[in-house]
Amino acid sequence: xxxxNCFIGEYRYSVDDKGRTMxxxxxxCDTGSPYVLTKGMDRCLYLFDDRVWTxxxxxxxxxxIPVSSDNRAFVRILFSGAATVELDKIGRISIPQHLRxxxxxxxxxxxxxxxxxxxxxxVHIWDTYRSKAEKVFEQNIGALQAR
Length: 147
Prior knowledge:
- It is found in: Cytoplasm, Nucleoid.
- Pfam families: MraZ.
- It comes from Candidatus Cryosericum terrychapinii.
- Keywords: Cytoplasm, DNA-binding, Repeat, Transcription, Transcription regulation.
- This protein is 36% helix and 23% strand.
- It has helices at residues 50-61, 69-80, 97-102, 123-145; strands spanning 10-14, 20-22, 35-39, 45-48, 83-85, 92-94, 108-113, 118-122.
- A hairpin with a 5-residue loop joins strand 3 and strand 4 (45-48).
């Protein structure tokens, strides 16, 4: 992965009554390829571009029948909750109802860069999470500098 393919930054948008929200212009693919949206950790959504989603499939495809219960649970949640989303003519995506409910998305969302993907959070949940995470970041920044 190179820095041009990294998802970074924080973008805030409103969500309309149909579950549509703007998609950060910086990350819109020129190819028109769809994105994959699925359940993420900490009650957010993960949004992958085609390149990363393909690598996830390739990683799990080799293990056609996940043996461990943890692997089965991971595969089931990640893939059963997934939906292909495409940009409309004005650069919006439509977030399916089941994913909006999972992430408690209401009127305003945050797209947060997470290196290999974007995360979509309800703005209030994100602000609470980020506040706690910043304290952990500050406590551990010394360890990162020592690397």
